[in-house]
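Exercise 7. Given the encoded structure of a 456-residue chain, write a plausible sequence.
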């Protein structure tokens, strides 16, 4: 029986909370009204110097999977086989995954694979990229974007980027085209769609294949069109840290009749097991094994059901943060056209260091002290500056196609000034869907406070 209220002991938690609130209020720390009464707190004083932190709240717990994934994986475990066998026997997970994927990215041919890197390699191989063929792409990306080009003996050609989109500059792409160019890989960095109208027009004009690397852009939209549906092939990653994941995994998709039917072969040692009367046949091609199992597909199918919510939340938070840090002379927010949807795998902005009395390292240190978890830059150097690119030492210290005269590419002479500046002046914030708008506005307030403090 519950005793009447007045006789009930105050639960310890409530007592502590009430007492603490009274103590804080007495010192002008607990509420706006309390702050008026006590000595004024200088809100512009940096937390690093003992002032109040700009970020007081915390993001909620980041729960990325739960009993729903558990149930679906249990269903897979109840099967007698965990092999992807499309539509054969009782195996259903890969088919379910593909069905759900097509709701987000309607493409005729969809193939699950072991990683985003595998997805791009499969796309490059299915697109028929061969020795000496050039593929134009961005120097700010994951190595997975370019590994497949090199493994097919193609030549990555790096073009410069938009200053605030961090994506391929279509003018630079067109300038990089030579008679050897076969394809463009557009990477939607941090979830911001590339200018796909311009890239599509360039690809069509020069008869190039347009590959979209959507690894960082799950759920993004270009002029209302789902990411991955403007290019000829789309590649996605399901690596653990992406918007949705399966620990590791990938997807490659195409509606192009030249490319789509070949995807499965290049994911599964050169053969199409789903073809009627499948045997290792004369149409086989050289390819490695990039298969994904039913366990990952089961997990991924439930992750896909979460994608709409994750993408919408990240899109709204990113827009809110752009608004918060806009209009500052020393800060350049990311440029995301109003009619596109970015899904902010991370949030990246640039500093105008000539307008600041501090270095980027100091800026980041001080903004972190405000409670905003930020870090300097993204990848350490543009891809072409990696030592094995500078030395052209891709295959046991050698690069056979260069020795054979199929390319004269010299990565030691490549310069993409904007890309280099993006990496030396950028600040990275790991935005995610566990955050709410109030928290993100505090993050923005921290940037404003620090930028104002150091403004030259
Ligand atoms: C993560 C990523 C990849 C590679 O994906 P993995 O699944 O890690 O192989 C490729 N491209 C971009 C842009 C990425 O962010």
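Solution.
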């Amino acid at each position: 029986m519950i005793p009447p209220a007045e006789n009930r002991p105050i639960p310890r938690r409530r007592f502590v909370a009430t007492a603490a609130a009274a103590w804080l209020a007495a010192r002008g720390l607990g509420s706006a009204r309390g702050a008026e009464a006590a000595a004024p707190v200088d809100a512009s004083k940096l937390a690093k110097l003992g002032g109040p932190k700009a970020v007081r709240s915390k993001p909620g717990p980041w729960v990325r999977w739960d009993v729903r994934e558990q149930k679906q994986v249990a269903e897979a475990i109840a099967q007698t086989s965990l092999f992807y066998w499309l539509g054969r026997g009782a195996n259903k997970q890969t088919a379910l995954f593909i069905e759900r994927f097509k709701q987000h990215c309607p493409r005729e041919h969809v193939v699950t694979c072991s990683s985003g890197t595998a997805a791009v390699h499969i796309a490059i191989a299915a697109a028929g990229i061969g020795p000496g063929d050039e593929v134009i792409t961005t120097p700010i990306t994951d190595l997975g974007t370019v590994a497949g080009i090199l493994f097919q003996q193609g030549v990555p050609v790096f073009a410069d980027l938009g200053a605030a989109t961090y994506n391929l500059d279509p003018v630079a792409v067109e300038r990089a085209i030579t008679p050897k160019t076969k394809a463009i890989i557009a990477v939607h960095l941090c979830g911001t769609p590339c200018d796909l109208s311009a890239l599509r027009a360039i690809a069509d004009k020069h008869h190039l294949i347009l590959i979209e690397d959507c690894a960082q852009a799950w759920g993004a939209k270009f002029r209302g069109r789902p990411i991955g549906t403007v290019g000829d092939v789309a590649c996605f990653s399901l690596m653990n840290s992406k918007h949705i994941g399966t620990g590791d995994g990938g997807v490659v998709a195409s509606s192009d009749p030249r490319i789509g039917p070949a995807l499965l072969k290049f994911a599964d040692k050169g053969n199409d097991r789903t073809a009627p009367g499948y045997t290792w046949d004369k149409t086989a091609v050289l390819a490695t094994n990039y298969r994904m199992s039913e366990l990952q597909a089961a997990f991924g199918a439930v992750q896909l059901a979460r994608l709409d919510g994750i993408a919408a939340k990240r899109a709204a938070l990113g827009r809110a943060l752009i608004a918060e840090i806009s209009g500052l002379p020393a800060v350049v927010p990311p440029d995301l056209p109003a009619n596109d949807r970015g899904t902010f795998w991370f949030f990246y902005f640039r500093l105008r260091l000539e307008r600041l009395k501090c270095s980027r390292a100091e800026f980041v240190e001080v903004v972190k002290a405000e409670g905003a978890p930020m870090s300097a830059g993204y990848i350490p150097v543009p891809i072409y500056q990696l030592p094995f690119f500078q030395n052209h030492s891709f295959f046991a210290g050698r690069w056979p196609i260069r020795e054979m005269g199929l390319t004269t590419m010299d990565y030691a002479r490549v310069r993409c000034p904007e890309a280099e500046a993006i990496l030396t002046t950028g600040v990275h914030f790991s935005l995610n869907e566990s955050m709410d708008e109030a928290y993100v506005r505090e993050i923005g307030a921290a940037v404003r406070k620090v930028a104002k403090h150091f403004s030259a």
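Remark. Residues 162 and 246 are 32 Å apart (CA to CA). Students should compare their own answers with the one above.
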